[in-house]
């Protein structure tokens, strides 16, 4: 799903009406209806609903929502923070259809004096004051209304965006911003919806009539949604066999870190790869083999420290293991031993088979980032901020401040796909396109979840070797969604990496279900 700027969203609305013949009043009617339907579905017991409206089109959406909620039998109060004579265009037309007399306030002092106004109480407040076309700072009666909203504990549903927020800001907002327990926006998300942490609840993107051809953006940013990946999760051919779904080879593990390689091998199978083999030092092979019986193992020569040795390359040992494999996953648990790091750099330059590099496989390129290049082959790297910082010779703080630019630049300069992990994991393609993941939670900040992701990416690529980017974004989305489901079951504190494997079946089913909805929901 494309992410668009506020200016692009206005252009989309204009094109929808002028080129595709959808009246702007219809767009507003559909927007307000979507808000009302959200409130009714998520707060079915709410009887008293306050709708606080500004004088622009956001207020017009609020008038429609108020009418629809009234028609559904709810007790609705409307507060208009303007003189009704100031209303223009579609908002004025929708105001005339209000089934309840509104309260009009034009000065912030009136709000301060009249504490008896019930517009910020009741069971739910709908914030329809300011939309995505607004540019901070907010002042006057609008600022006072936002303060009143923020002072109460009543659930708040924002129409389009929390009032006072700048839709194009990707980080912290400046000035007064209304709190929101959920957001209902329309057609496509804006940058602040995805990056701004505007709500702890859900953000629903509802279609209101704009066809796909009208949704154009120069940002080259996309939010991953179930609709983008569900086609990869369809039924398998009746006569399928394991050879149809690819062969994964995980090269990793070391003394004390055998579980990392084992989890990668296991998760490749759980997303559907036909075969998964872990090549690991001889001394930890039994540990890996005992982890999951379906994962095959291969012993490799090791250093005195129990890590994979360069000797594993001698006599064509690794060559024979790589032969006929669909994808390699290099790095889980492999260690930072100097000889092993040299082996990793050799593997990446030597083999042309699609490859996913993670963990200490990436740390092997600290100070040697020029050797990490995907020219002429498929290369996917999955760094967390610390690993990314080592690759670019910087600090975690710098990486976190410039996540988007750093991921894009590295992907372009090194001709590979970067999966920069963290809140809103980024999948950056060398062509400048970026996909932003909207699943996942802090409970996944625990050892091993990255190894699970590495195996999942490898497993998805194994099944779809001609659809590399699509496979990567599917794995990233499913990984976060499995984590979200695991959190629902056990909470954030008790979640461990292998719980994600247990909840993957539910994640697959949820993607298939959610892809059929008329709207898209993302985590706030």
Distance between the termini: 16 Å
Second-tier CATH architecture of the largest domain: 3-Layer(aba) Sandwich
Overall SS class = alpha/beta
Q: Which topology of the largest domain does CATH recognise? A: UDP-N-acetylmuramoyl-L-alanine:D-glutamate ligase
Explain this structure.
The protein has 524 residues and is α/β, with parallel strands linked by helices. The protein has 19 helices and 18 strands. It has helices spanning 6-18, 24-42, 57-71, 89-96, 108-113, 140-151, 191-195, 226-229, 258-270, 285-289, 317-322, 338-350, 360-363, 385-392, 396-401, 403-414, 449-463, 468-490, 497-514; strands at residues 48-53, 75-80, 103-104, 124-128, 156-159, 182-186, 202-206, 221-223, 247-251, 275-281, 296-300, 327-330, 355-357, 379-381, 417-420, 426-428, 434-436, 520-523. It has a 10-stranded mixed sheet, sandwiched between helices. The protein has an 8-stranded mixed sheet with strand order 3-2-1-4-5-6-7-18, covered by helices on one side. The longest helix is centred in the C-terminal third of the chain and has 23 residues, at 468-490. The model has no long low-confidence stretch (mean pLDDT 95).
């Amino acid at each position: 799903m494309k992410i668009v700027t506020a200016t692009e969203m206005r252009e989309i609305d204009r094109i929808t009406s002028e080129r595709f013949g959808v009246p702007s009043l219809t767009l507003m009617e559909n927007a307000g209806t979507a808000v009302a339907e959200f409130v009714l579905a998520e707060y079915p017991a709410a009887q008293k609903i306050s709708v606080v409206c500004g004088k622009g089109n956001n207020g017009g959406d609020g008038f429609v929502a108020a009418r629809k909620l009234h028609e559904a039998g709810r007790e609705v109060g409307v507060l208009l923070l303007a003189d009704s004579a100031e209303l223009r265009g579609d908002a004025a037309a929708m105001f005339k259809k209000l089934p309840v007399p509104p309260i009009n306030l034009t000065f912030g002092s009136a709000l301060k004096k009249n504490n008896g106004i019930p517009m910020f109480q009741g069971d739910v407040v709908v914030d329809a004051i300011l939309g995505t076309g607004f540019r901070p700072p907010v002042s006057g009666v609008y600022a006072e209304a936002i303060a009143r909203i923020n002072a109460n504990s009543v659930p708040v549903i924002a129409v389009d965006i929390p009032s006072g927020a700048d839709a194009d800001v990707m980080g912290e907002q400046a000035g007064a911003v209304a709190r929101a327990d959920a957001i209902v926006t329309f057609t496509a998300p804006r940058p602040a919806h995805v990056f701004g942490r505007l709500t702890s609840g859900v953000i629903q993107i509802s279609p209101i009539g704009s066809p796909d051809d009208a949704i154009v953006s120069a940002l080259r940013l996309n939010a991953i949604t179930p609709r983008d990946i569900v086609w990869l999760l369809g039924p398998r051919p009746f006569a399928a066999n394991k050879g149809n779904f690819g062969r994964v080879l995980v090269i990793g593990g070391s003394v004390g870190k055998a579980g990392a390689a084992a989890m990668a091998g296991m998760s490749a199978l759980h997303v559907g790869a036909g075969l998964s083999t872990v090549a690991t030092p001889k001394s930890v092979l039994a540990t890996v083999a005992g982890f999951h019986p379906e994962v095959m193992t291969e012993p490799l020569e090791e250093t005195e420290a129990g890590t994979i040795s360069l000797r594993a390359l001698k006599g064509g040992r690794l060559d024979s293991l790589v032969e006929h494999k669909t994808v390699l996953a290099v790095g889980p648990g492999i260690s930072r031993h100097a000889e092993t790091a040299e082996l990793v750099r050799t593997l990446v330059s030597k083999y042309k088979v699609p490859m996913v590099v993670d963990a200490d496989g990436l740390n092997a390129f600290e100070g040697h980032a020029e050797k990490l290049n995907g020219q002429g082959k498929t290369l996917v790297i999955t760094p967390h901020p610390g690993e990314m910082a080592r690759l670019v010779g910087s600090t975690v703080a710098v990486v976190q401040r410039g996540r988007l630019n750093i991921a894009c630049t590295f992907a372009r300069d090194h001709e590979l796909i970067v999966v920069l992990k963290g809140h809103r994991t980024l999948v950056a393609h060398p062509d400048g396109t970026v996909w932003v993941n909207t699943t996942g939670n802090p409970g996944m900040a625990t050892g091993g979840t990255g190894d699970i992701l590495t195996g999942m990416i490898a497993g998805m690529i194994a099944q779809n070797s001609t659809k590399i980017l699509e496979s990567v974004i599917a794995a990233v989305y499913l990984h976060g969604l499995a984590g979200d489901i695991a959190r629902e079951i056990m909470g954030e504190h008790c979640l461990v990496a292998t719980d994600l494997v247990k909840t993957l079946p539910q994640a697959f089913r949820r993607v298939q279900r959610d892809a059929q909805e008329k709207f898209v929901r993302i985590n706030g």
